[in-house]
Structure formats: structure tokens, C-alpha cells
């Protein structure tokens, strides 16, 4: 099998790992390991590939688990570095996401990933972005070596506790993933410039949104994570979970909204409300639910509220809150239409604000219940 035939298999096999913002759309997989990635700075292309899809582990959701009947192959580090440079010569690619199944043992597979990155850095003088997956169970020495060649390292936590991990695999341990994350944090604290992310598979093990949210919040703070990704479970043919219902994409979307409320709006886990089953409401966004559950805060007066209070209004975000403050210093607001230029989503904000004491709830009551 030549290198580009291998690439067809190992490029596609990497699609279950997140490396940009949120789930890639179906058309975000372009070809031969090239993925379109949505970042806060816009859309870019990244080369995502597995070094091997040969795996001796048994993760019940995974296309690469040892019992699954799928075509198997591997690159050598030399081969993969050469393929990457060739793909980069032909296409505009901003970086590389380097991952692997576990063929031999965590350190041996890490060593091949590190060798690939070293060849790129030294022989090909590649100075661009490299995101490298850390194998659960990798040693301290292997993680330290990886941190010298990669810009970002990640271990996928997948589930919120050991109890759920045991439902998905006998081979991975929740504790060994936490140990790896802790090691990356230690290296960062020592001054090594490497960032860290993780990913949850949503709905694979019967866990609730509340459990995912609480654990994601804790991990982000404890290990200083740059991002947490959420990937709705999708059944893969030939695996023990092929008959399980896929997780609705809206569940994944709500978790990203919550993560955004934590990072941009100063929300905390105790500010959220859940359904009886512990999941976030699917039909209302979490900020709107917060507003409905806190009538003591609303309506918010646009001409006097401080930045943090403005941020609690559905339809007002960090940018629009700043614009409102800037404008009202010189020129207080007189009508709701004057908010149009700030980026405020008026139909969302209307029931929750006043301007000089004037409320806008009554005139829009029918819409209030349908804008979510
Ligand atoms: S370790 Fe588990 S998730 Fe990773 S490739 Fe192997 S079976 Fe898949």
C-alpha cells in the first residue's frame, strides 16, 4: 500500500477527534486528511491524521477497536512527515493534528508521534502549529518530550467519571487520563509553552449533562485547559454500540453554549438549571432559562446597568454590552430602536430590559414565547 492509499484510511479515521471549535460539518472533511476548522479567528484548514489505526484496546464506541473489521495500516514517522509536507505543498494548511491508536503500548506509540514531529521540526524546518494527542497511560518522560515539539497536547477524558469509563472500555482508566493532564499542567507551570485541551463523548455512557458540565468546569480550572470539546455520540457499525441511538446534536450545542457562558459571561455551574433527568433543556438556551428563573434581576435598565448586569440580558453579549456602555456615556438611550447598532438581538432582549423605566414586555408578549 503506498503512502497516499494509507492517507485515505488514516486521514478519515481521525475524524472522531475534535481539534477546532465544535463538531466538524460533514463537508468539513475535504479529503486526504484535510479538515476545515472553525476557530474564533475564522475558518482555516488543518491536516488531521492517525499514525496507525491498529489498536489492541476495546473502547466500545470506536471504529478502531481491536475487534472491528476495518482495514488497518500504519505510517512510519518518516513516511508521515513526508506525506504532510507534500500535502502542505499542494494545499494551504495551517497546522497538523497528530494522533494514533494504541498498537503496542502508550510510550511506544507516543514515541512514533514525537519522532514524526521532530522530523518535521528539524529536517523540514516546519515551524507551524502541531497538536499532538497524548496516549492515556503515557509516561512522564514521553509527555515531556512531546511538549518540546508540539504547540498543543490533549488527552480525551470522554466521560465524567471512572464509573462511566468502565461502561465503555476495560483498557482505559479515568485516573491515568487525569495523571496525564496533571503532567501537562506541571510542564506549563514550569514555563513550557504548550496548551492543553480535552474532549467528552456526549451520551455514550448514560451520563447526564449536569455531570459533564460539572466535570468540564472542574477540569478546565484544575488543569488550565484552553478548550473543552463536546462530541455527540454517533454509533459506529461493527462496534458493540452500533445499535445505540445517536445523541441529538442539540445536546452537544447546549453544552457549547454553557461553556461559552462560563468563559465569556462569568457564569458558574450553580447558575444553570436542568431537567429532571439532569440534562439541559433542549428547547431553550441556558441563558434564557437563567433569565426566566431569576425574575428578581429583571428587567435590567439599559441606561444604568453595569457591564456584568447587561451581560445577563438574553440577546446582549460582551460586544454589545461594551457598545451600550460606550454610547450611553455621551448619549443615554431613549428608545429600543437605538440599540440596533450595538449588536443586541432585540427580539431576545426586549422582555428583559427597560429604557428610562419603560418596559417592552407587553407589546411583544406573543413573540416572547417563541424566540428561543
Ligand atoms: S484506544 Fe480506544 S479510542 Fe483509542 S483508537 Fe483504540 S479503541 Fe479507539
TrEMBL record:
Domain of life: Bacteria
Family annotation (Gene3D superfamilies): Aldolase class I (3.20.20.70), Photosystem II 12 kDa extrinsic protein (1.10.150.320)
Keywords annotated in UniProt: Iron, Iron-sulfur, Metal-binding, S-adenosyl-L-methionine
GO MF: catalytic activity; iron-sulfur cluster binding; metal ion binding
Pfam families for the chain: HHH_3, Radical_SAM
Residue intervals of the Radical SAM core domain: 41-268
SUPFAM superfamilies: Radical SAM enzymes, RuvA domain 2-like
Annotated protein name in UniProt: Radical SAM protein
Amino acid at each position: 500500500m503506498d503512502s497516499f492509499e494509507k492517507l485515505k484510511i488514516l486521514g478519515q479515521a481521525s475524524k472522531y477527534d475534535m481539534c477546532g471549535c465544535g463538531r466538524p460539518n460533514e463537508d468539513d472533511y475535504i479529503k486526504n486528511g484535510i479538515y476545515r476548522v472553525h476557530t474564533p479567528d475564522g475558518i482555516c484548514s488543518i491536516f488531521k491524521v492517525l499514525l496507525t489505526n491498529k489498536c489492541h484496546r476495546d473502547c466500545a464506541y470506536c471504529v478502531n477497536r481491536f475487534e472491528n473489521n476495518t482495514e488497518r495500516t500504519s505510517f512510519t514517522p518518516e513516511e508521515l512527515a513526508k506525506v504532510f509536507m507534500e500535502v502542505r505543498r499542494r494545499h494551504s494548511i495551517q497546522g497538523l493534528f497528530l494522533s494514533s491508536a494504541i498498537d503496542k503500548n502508550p510510550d511506544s506509540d507516543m514515541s512514533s508521534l514525537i519522532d514524526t514531529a521532530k522530523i518535521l521540526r528539524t529536517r523540514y524546518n516546519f515551524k507551524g502549529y502541531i497538536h499532538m494527542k497524548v496516549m492515556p497511560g503515557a509516561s512522564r518522560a514521553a509527555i515531556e518530550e512531546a511538549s518540546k515539539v508540539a504547540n498543543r497536547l490533549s488527552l480525551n477524558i470522554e466521560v465524567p467519571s471512572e464509573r462511566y469509563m468502565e461502561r465503555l472500555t476495560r483498557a482505559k482508566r479515568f485516573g491515568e487520563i487525569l495523571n496525564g493532564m496533571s503532567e501537562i499542567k506541571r510542564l506549563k507551570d514550569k514555563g513550557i509553552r504548550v496548551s492543553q485541551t480535552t474532549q467528552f463523548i456526549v451520551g455514550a455512557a448514560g451520563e447526564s449533562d449536569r455531570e459533564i458540565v460539572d466535570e468540564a468546569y472542574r477540569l478546565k480550572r484544575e488543569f488550565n485547559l484552553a478548550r473543552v470539546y463536546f462530541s455527540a455520540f454517533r454509533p459506529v457499525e461493527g462496534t458493540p454500540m452500533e445499535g445505540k441511538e445517536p445523541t441529538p446534536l442539540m445536546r452537544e450545542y447546549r453544552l457549547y453554549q454553557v461553556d461559552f457562558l462560563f468563559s465569556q459571561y462569568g457564569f458558574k455551574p450553580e447558575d444553570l438549571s436542568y431537567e429532571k433527568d439532569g440534562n439541559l433543556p433542549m428547547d431553550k438556551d441556558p441563558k434564557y432559562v437563567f433569565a426566566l428563573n431569576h425574575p428578581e434581576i429583571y428587567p435590567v435598565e439599559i441606561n444604568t446597568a453595569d457591564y456584568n448586569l447587561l451581560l445577563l440580558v438574553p440577546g446582549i453579549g460582551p460586544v454589545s454590552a461594551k457598545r451600550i456602555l460606550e454610547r450611553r456615556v455621551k448619549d443615554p438611550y431613549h428608545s429600543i430602536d437605538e440599540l440596533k447598532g450595538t449588536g443586541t438581538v432585540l427580539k431576545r432582549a426586549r422582555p428583559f430590559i427597560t429604557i428610562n423605566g419603560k418596559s417592552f414586555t407587553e407589546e411583544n408578549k406573543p413573540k416572547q414565547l417563541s424566540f428561543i
